[in-house]
Every structure is written in C-alpha cells, then in structure tokens.
Amino acid sequence: MLASGPPSRMGSSVSPSQGIFPPSNIGNSEFLNVGASSSFPPPELDMNKNDETDLLSVSWNQNSGCIAAGTSNGFRIYNCEPFKETFRRDLKSGGFKIVEMLFRCNILGLVGSVGNTHYPPNKVLIWDDHQSRCIGEFTFRSEVRGVKLRRDRIVVVLEHKIYIYNLMDLKLLHQIETLANTRGLCCLSHHSNTFVLACPGLCKGQVRVEHFGLNVTKLINAHDSQIACFTLSMDGLLLATASVKGTLIRIFNTMDGSRLQEVRRGADRAEINSMALSPNVQWLAASSDKGTVHLFNLRVRVFGEDTRSNSPRGPALAHQNSSTSLDPLVSPNTGANPNSSLSFMRGVLPKYFSSEWSFAQFHLSERTKFIVAFGSQSQNSVLIVGMDGSFYRCSFDPVRGGAMLQKEYVSFLKFQSRSTI
After folding, report:
1. Lowest mean pLDDT among 44-48, 108-112, 155-159, 304-308
2. Cross-strand partners of 241
3. 187 and 168 within one domain
4. Which domain holds residue 308?
5. Rounded Cα distance, 136 and 37, in Å
C-alpha cells in the first residue's frame, strides 16, 4: 500500500492564489526540503531577448485547451482554439524542462533545465504568474522527471519514487516506489469527485493504479516488455497502455484490472510518444516516432448509457461504485477499426492477422516528437503539437475514418499561422 508522509509541523496554511506557503522540513532519502520560496532570488525578466529560442518541452493542460512550452530562456503558454500565445516569460537565468499548468489558472509547476542558473533540475517551483513569483518549492536529491497537478494535489515524479502533496499546505501525503522511471511516466484523473493515479509498478510491464478515494491499489500486468506510455480517462476508470515495442495498445478497466480491448499501431517496433482518450472515451489517439498519428475506435462505454449520446460519461461511472461499470461493446453509431482481410482465419493464422488496426491516420515528420490531444470545439477534432514548434488541428470522419483532414497549421515559435479550412 501507500506510504504516508510523517506528521506535518506546519502552521496556518494560505491558498496558492494568495501566494504564501508556511515552511516545512520533512526528511527521507530523496526529499530534502519544501516550503516558501526563500533560497531563490526572484527571476529577472530578459528584456533584451534574442529570437533564437529552443523548445525543451511541450505539454497540454488538463482539458487540452492550452499548451505549456518550456523554452531555453523561460516558458510560454498558448491557447489552442483559437490558437494564440497567451503569455510568455523570458528569463535571464535560463530555461525550463518541465512546465505544468493547472487548468487555466495562474498556478504553474516548473522545473529548470540543466543550464538554468537559478532553478536547477532537482527542484520543483510552484509559480504564481499573477504575482510573478515562486510561492513554494520542493528540493530533492535527484533530478525531477515529472510534475502533475490537480486542483487539490501536487505530484512529483523521480526516477524511483513518486511524492504526492496537498496543494493547499504542501503537506506530504503519500510516497510510491516505482521501477526505474526515466521517462517520468505518471498520469492523474481530473474529475473533482475521483482521484486516480497511474504509474509504473515494481515489475517490468506493470502499471500501478491508485484509487485514492476508495483506498484501493490495483496492479495491472499490461505488457511483457517495459512500459513506454500510458494515459487515463478523465475519471480514471479507463487506462490505455503501450510498451517499448510500440506495436500494441491495450485498454484496461482500472477497477478490476480486466483488459477491455487491444488495438495494433503497426507491425514494426516504434516509440509511442503520447496517447490521449477522448472525453467521451469513444476514441483513442496515439503518436509515435514513425511520424503517424493513429486514431482508434473504442468498444467500451458505461453500462446503461445511451451509446448515441456524445456527452461525457455520467455519475454512475464517475463515482466508481461498481467494479463492473465498464461494459465493452461495439458502438452502433461509428465505424469499427479495420481488420486484416484474413481475420476470418482467427485462431489459425498468427495473432497479427486478426488485429484491430487504426480507424483514421494523420502523417507527420518522423524526425520530430509529437504529442496528441482531442479538441474541445469539435468532437471529431484532434490536436497535435511537435517539438519543432508546430501545431496542427485535424478532423476525422467518424463513420468512414481514413486520412484525417488538416484544418490548421501554426509554427508557434515563429508566429506563422496558416488555416487550411
């Protein structure tokens, strides 16, 4: 089970928006210090910045409405629909390798790059951009691999450990040990009435799922090979996983660990860079180093939900009150993923020939890492952002599938926008 943190000796707490956290010291092998920001000088804005900016990281906020970009000299925030730069912070001290948004509010989680003179990569800063200052900090003995935020929690990912803190007072609540996790794999649910966390387990190919509201831990042996990528649905009840082979993607019920569906990205080994589940869990998108974004039709829905509805799943699922609340079936209003023409010989030919292949595709450069999400303005919209500073908005035919249609392209580091509608 989880290891809880030691009792806190903090005084009265103040909300993040007010900008003050009381100091605290909690000791263990990795964790050094947490508290109000006092050891770092305030950042100096670079008013004479040059135009040569390298992109160090890109990430979506929790509802995929914004992009957070860590650059070699600061960070930038972009709105997705319509696409525009919301604000940027260019600092003299250097760049940030991790920028994590908290929905659309002014609170950010930041981790500096190796070359950042004020904010090293073993520290997490809780930044209030409204006040333009750090309002809390965490210091560790090793490099921070990832940061995740909820409205009530801060999650810090190290190579072998994950720490979970209360957002309001920075109290350490839980610690989780993981297999070596250099990728910083971790994802959270974002519905207010569920708190589900997925992370690597202690065995190769295993995903650990924590249902904090139910005090339930589920270990899912998802693959024979090491886990490379995974994602949760917004309520945390569906988990999609991929291994380092990158050929198969599997979808699981996180309540009982049952496998609901398996789809095939391709036959050749590939690195899957990102996956996303649509808000209505009808679609799964995946990007890989092969330069193609694949879209799959999911055969899962809530028991009793009208499959003709495009609305997000209802309270029966969100409250996690049944281990059998996920009922796999074929959705009648959309096309199915294509199979091999030899799939009728299932059980005779190798499993490859009976695989479910992608329903729709979009082709990109193989030289760039891309991450995917679903648009909020249209239920058939896929958003793609690349480490080359490119943004794409595409649409797909929910009945016929096939090649996605590019609707918009933006080179956001150079501010070049082109609509192809």
Report:
1. 304-308
2. 230, 250
3. no
4. 179-421
5. 5
